[in-house]
Structures are given as C-alpha cells and as structure tokens.
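Table 4 source record.
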Amino acid sequence: MFPALLLATSVLLAPPGDQPLKSQISNLKSKLPDRVASFSPGPGAGYGQKKFPDVVLGPPKGGGKLKAGIDVLSLGDGGSIVLEFVDNEVIDDEGPDFLVFENPFLQEKGDDPDLGFFELAKVEVSSDGETWTAFPFDTGTRKGCAGHHPVLANADENDIDPSDPANAGGDPFDLKEIGVKSCRFVRITDLKSKGGAEGTAGFDLDAIAAVHSRPRKK
C-alpha cells in the first residue's frame, strides 16, 4: 500500500524525561529483533529489498492512521519471514508481549477501525526456530492477524515508545493466548488477503518490538 508520500526529515528520538539518549537507544535495541533468520518472498515481492535486512530490524516508522508508512519490506503473495532475538527473548507477562507493525491505513476521518486498507498475515512463534506455535486468526474479523492496526510510532518523527502497546499502534500478541512462556523467533506469513502492484504485493513488514523481554540465558 503505497500512496504518494513525502519523506519526513529525520530527527533523533527525544529521550523521555531526564533519561540519557544513549540509555534510551540501548533500551530500545533490547526490544528489537537482532537478525533475519530466513526470508521466503512470494510472487509480487520486491519493495524494500534494497534496504534489507535493516529495513525490518529497526524501530517502526509508521505513517499514522491515514497513510501508509513506506519504510517496509513487501513479503509478496504468501511470502514468509522469520526474525530472531539473539541476546534477548520475548517473555509472557501481563497483557501483550510483542507488537507487529505493518503499514495499514484507515479511510478519512480515521474514526472507524474497520474501514481501511489491510494486508493481513498470520503470526507464529518459536523458542528454537524449529517447533512453531501459531496464533489463531480470522481473516473475516481480522482477529489474531497482523496488519490491522495503523502504526503511530515513528522513530524519525516522534518519541512514541514502539514497545508501548497503548500508544505505538501496530498489532499486539499475547503469548498467554497460545500457552507459550517465551520465544526468540517470530514468523510472519502473508495471508493473500489483498492484491498489490508488482513489487509491493503482500504483507508489508515495518518492524517487530517486544513489550516484555529479558536477557537470554546462555
């Protein structure tokens, strides 16, 4: 989903309160995946691959409620990607445990969350990259799908914490719902819910951010 957009001038994330910027950046890094474990693009993929893998490893750069962010990787029709947390792991705690950011947008005035452009994906997690547990989903209601909620956090334009499910936007996932205590791998697979021009087809991944995480035990 790529309407005509103007790139915003980049600015540094503003540190909350008196917290040093260096500390804030370090804390944010611990919330983000460290590497792409695998990427299997589907037909129609291509957008964002010149900046791959960095384009999906940094913080989200959302476009807000009414426009699509463009700092994304198009997975293509049925494409799949696996992101890995190397030094940390996502853990189950109260409420959502991680957020997945795509680039959906709503119709004017943006006050109806069911009216907009959504490219959906299913989400699975794993502790070892081999055994996977999927979140149940319904493409009709979009419940359990990634790619439904607009992305409000934008590392170039505002200081919204991308690990804050109350303010960052994106789609929340709670490990408790699937009986998983922790995970290091997140797999996202396009559900072929929308078309898309050649090169921009399928789910457009912006970022993933942990809400609850801890250093990995080695």
